[in-house]
Structure formats: C-alpha cells, structure tokens
C-alpha cells in the first residue's frame, strides 16, 4: 500500500505541476498546433476538392477524357503533333514489390507528344537493371526507352549523379525534362498536365507534385504517412509554392544545357539533396515553383516496412537540413531545423501532461480520495478533455484530406485499382503522430552532430553543406531500402554483419567530431 501511496503522491504532484502557468502555456500551445494543422489540411482539402469537382463537371458536360485534359479539343491530332518533346529521367536504386507497377504507370503515359524514358542505374549489378530490362521487352516497340549505366558518383550523391547523366543522354530536341523517383506512380495524364502548365507560363522554373502515402499496416508505415501529411499542405496550393519534392520535378531542358543559375554545377559539386538544392537555387534567383492540383501521386509503402527502416528514412529526411548552397540557405535551414524541432516537441508535450491529469483523476476516483486530498486534479482533467477535442478535430481534418486525395487519384486513374480509406487504421495514425513528432528532434540533432549518413549503402560526409567524402563498403549495404522495401543486394553481395559490429560503427559515427563552418 505504501508503494501505491507514493505513486498517488507522485501523480497528484505531477498533475498540480502541469497546472502551473508555464505548463498551461505549453498545453494551450499544443491545442493551437493541433488546430493549425487541422486548418491547413482543411485548406488543402478545399483545393483538391475543387479540382475533383471540376473534373466531374467536365465529364457531365461530355468530356469523357477530363482526367487527361481540361478541353477535349486538346486531343485533336492537330494539337497533339505540336506538343513539345519531354524526356523522363528516372534514377533507380534496387528493386521492390511496387516498382513494376510504378514503372508501368510511368511508361504507359497518354501524353501525345514525343516522349522518351531514361532509366539510369549505378551499375549492371543493381537489381533494378535486370528488372527494367525484362519490363522493357514488353514495351520495346511501343515506347522510346533506354537503360543508362551512370557509374559511381564521386562529387555528389548517387541519385544526383544518375540524374545529371540522364540529362546528358537526353534527346537534343528535348524541351522539358521530368525527374521521377521510381516510387512515383503516375496517372495517365500527369505528364501532359505538367507540360501544359509549363507551356502556359514561361516564368515557371520547376513544377512539382507530392505523394499520397498508402500505409501497409505497420507502425513504421503510418509514421511515414504522418510525417508527409503536414508537408502536403505546401503542395496543395493549386499554384505557387516554396516546397519541392524530388520525386517529381519538371524543368526546362535548356536550364541544364546552359547551366542556368548554376543548376548543374551546384548539383554536381557536392550536392546531396536534389530538391533542397534546386529549391535553394529557385529562392536565391526568385524563380517560380508551382504544384498543379492534379499532381498528387499514390505512393504504396512496403508491406514489411519495419520501424528501424522508418527510423533510417527519418534520419535521411532530417539530414537534408545539414546541406546548403549559400549562407542564406544555411540560415533558412537552421530556422527550419529549430522551428520543426520546437513544434514537434511542443505538439507531444501536452499529451504527456494530459496523461498525468487522467492518471491522477483515475486514482482519485478509484481510491475514493476527496477533492481536498488531491487538489488540482479536477483542474487538470478539463485540460485533457480540451486536448482530446483538438486531437479529434485534427484527425478528422487529416482523414478528410486523405479521403479527397484518394477520390482525386481514382478520378485521374480510372483504369487503375481503386484506392480506399478502409485499410487506414486511425488509432495507429494517432500513435504515429506522437512517435514521429517525438523522434524528429532526436533525429535532427543526431544528423547535426554526425554530419554523415548511410543512404542505400553509401555513406556521405558533409563539410560546409557539401559532400566532402563518399564511402562505399560492402558491409554497410542494407538488404532493403526504407520505403519501398527494394532489394539492394545482388547475388554474391555482402555477407551479414554482426549486430555488435553495426553498433560499433554507429557509435564511431556518433562520436565523429562536428565539422563547423569556416
């Protein structure tokens, strides 16, 4: 009984402490964060819903191909023959369960103009190489496709190296180049929609889109879904945005041919993140980035996406804030770093406090304490109720945006398997919200102090925001990638490494001295 009395004293004291002015501020701040997220998702849902209604209205007016174009007259042969040439560059790494379907959605585009697809791999030993070869044999007489072996990167990330090699090999008459990740599942009219916007507005520097994560059921997959959802607000503007997703970027080919604004040199010379580098270039030169409302792409996550693989993905996402191109870009990244960390823990802290309030109230009820014996628990319980209400509003808004984006994706891909919300587990979504926001600052500070990252078996080291060293060892190649569960090892690949060896390497990286700016 003495132990329970001590527990009761602790809970009542903690509940009273959570009613202090500072604690009240933290809890009210948490309510505001929840409500701001709900408002942001509601605005994003409005943009997506408006586009959905416009497509349905065009269908009612007789345009059966509204999922391809706004005006059915655009499908006339006289218009199609004048469409510009587009080169689609896809840097590949590994092969996973969803890759074939994603690649098919890309190469079976209904874009009516000249179109070529460039699959770029690091080497023929990459599991993606043979998989793409087999796929392209089925379409060799229907689409213009090439497999390019880029070789190893030496001055930038392997993905950027593959992209730049793809640009070098694109057709001489290409007007627009579209960079796609191999986990981007396109709609039949996606390339056409992006091209039309580029043609209409010559001021556009980059067009982008954003994925709609389809969780596989594991906590790790829901954490990734929850991580992406706040970012989706910045892409659901229906036009101008400051955000850029590297999984879908359409640019003008001449910008690469002439190295305009240093797009090639800044990517090639120490570039780690393609989207962060290009977004920084756009900001520094006051160039326009847009995201059409139809640019939302289904993104199925691996069925065996484990929590450690989610953690690896989060590490890579926070690590991009350590790369920068200019002093201004460094300041912006640092501001984003501290703001995100503050808001993440500001979001989580009220739930810990609410836990004390609820636990104290339950102990008071079951032990039969009087209100005088457990002062302030009655004041804390309403705070927990307010947090619960704000959380429900937030989850409803998130679910509404997801529902509308699912409906939009189904409209844009009428022949694809129907997407549904029935498989979403909203209890896991709530848990993922807490887990992801709690771990984000830990991952961010881990990236800040380590200044190195293992990305698909390649360890990159940064100095002054640029890649300064690239290490490739057989024993650091993971078996699968983080999101798509893509197989990275080929036959005769690296042997299994002991857990102790892995921990020793991680510890060594953790104690690696910080590379301060000079």
TrEMBL record:
At the top of the EC hierarchy, this enzyme's class is transferase
Q: Which GO terms describe its cellular component?
A: membrane
Instruction: Name the membrane topology term.
Output: Multi-pass membrane protein
Domain of life, per the record?
Eukaryota
Provide the protein's localization.
Membrane
Whether Coiled coil counts among this entry's keywords is no
Give its E.C. classification number. Answer: 2.4.1.80
Q: Which GO terms describe its biological process?
A: glucosylceramide biosynthetic process
Q: What is its main location?
A: membrane
Keyword terms, alphabetized:
Glycosyltransferase, Membrane, Transferase, Transmembrane, Transmembrane helix
What stretches pass through the bilayer? 30-47, 335-360, 380-401, 421-440
Any one GO MF annotation of this record? ceramide glucosyltransferase activity
**Key word Glycosyltransferase present in the record?**
yes
What pathway is it annotated to? Sphingolipid metabolism; Lipid metabolism; sphingolipid metabolism
* InterPro entries in UniProt: Ceramide_glucosylTrfase, Nucleotide-diphossugar_trans
Q: Family, per the entry?
A: Belongs to the glycosyltransferase 2 family.
UniProt protein name: ceramide glucosyltransferase
């Amino acid at each position: 009984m003495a132990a329970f009395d001590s527990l009761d004293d602790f809970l009542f004291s903690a509940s009273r402490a959570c009613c202090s002015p500072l604690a009240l501020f933290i809890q009210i701040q948490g309510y505001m964060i929840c409500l701001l997220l709900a408002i942001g998702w509601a605005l994003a849902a409005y943009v997506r819903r408006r586009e959905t209604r416009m497509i349905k209205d065009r269908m009612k007016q007789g345009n059966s191909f509204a999922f391809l174009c706004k005006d059915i007259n655009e499908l006339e042969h006289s218009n199609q023959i004048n469409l510009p040439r587009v080169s689609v560059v896809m840097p590949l790494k590994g092969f996973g369960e969803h890759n074939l379907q994603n690649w098919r959605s890309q190469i079976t585009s209904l874009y009516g103009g000249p179109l070529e697809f460039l699959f770029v791999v690091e080497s023929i030993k990459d599991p993606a190489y043979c998989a793409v070869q087999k796929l392209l044999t089925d379409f060799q007489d229907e689409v213009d496709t090439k497999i390019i072996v880029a070789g190893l990167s030496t001055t930038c990330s392997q993905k950027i190296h593959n992209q730049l090699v793809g640009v070098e090999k694109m057709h001489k008459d290409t007007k627009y180049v579209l960079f796609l990740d191999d986990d981007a599942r396109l709609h039949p009219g996606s390339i056409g929609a992006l091209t039309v916007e580029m043609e209409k507005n010559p001021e556009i520097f980059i067009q982008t889109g954003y994925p709609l994560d389809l969780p596989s059921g594991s906590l790790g997959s829901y954490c990734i879904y929850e991580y992406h959802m706040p970012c989706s607000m910045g892409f659901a503007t229906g036009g101008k945005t400051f955000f850029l997703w590297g999984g879908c970027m359409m640019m003008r080919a001449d910008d690469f041919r002439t190295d305009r604004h240093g797009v090639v040199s800044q990517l090639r010379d120490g570039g780690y993140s393609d989207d962060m580098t290009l977004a920084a270039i756009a900001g520094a030169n006051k160039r326009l980035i847009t995201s059409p409302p139809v640019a939302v792409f289904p993104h199925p996550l691996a069925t065996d996406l484990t929590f450690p693989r989610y953690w690896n993905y989060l590490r890579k996402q926070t690590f991009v804030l350590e790369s920068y191109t200019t002093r201004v870009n460094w300041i912006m990244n640092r501001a984003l770093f501290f703001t995100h960390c503050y808001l993440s823990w500001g979001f989580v802290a009220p739930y810990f406090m609410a836990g004390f309030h609820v636990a104290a109230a339950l102990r008071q009820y079951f032990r039969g304490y009087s209100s005088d014996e457990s002062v302030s628990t009655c004041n804390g319980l309403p705070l927990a109720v307010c947090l619960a209400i704000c959380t429900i509003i937030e989850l409803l808004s998130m679910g509404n945006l997801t529902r509308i984006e699912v409906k939009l994706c189904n409209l844009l891909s009428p022949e694809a398997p129907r997407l549904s919300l029935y498989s979403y587990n909203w209890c896991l979504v709530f848990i993922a919200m807490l887990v992801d926001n709690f771990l984000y600052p830990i991952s961010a500070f881990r990236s800040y102090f380590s200044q190195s990252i293992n990305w698909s078996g390649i360890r990159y080291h940064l100095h002054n925001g640029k890649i300064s060293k690239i290490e490739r060892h057989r024993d650091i190649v993971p078996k699968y990638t983080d999101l798509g569960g893509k197989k990275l090892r080929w036959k005769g690949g690296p042997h299994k490494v002991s857990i102790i060896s892995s921990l020793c390497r991680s510890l060594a990286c953790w104690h690696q001295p910080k590379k301060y700016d000079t």
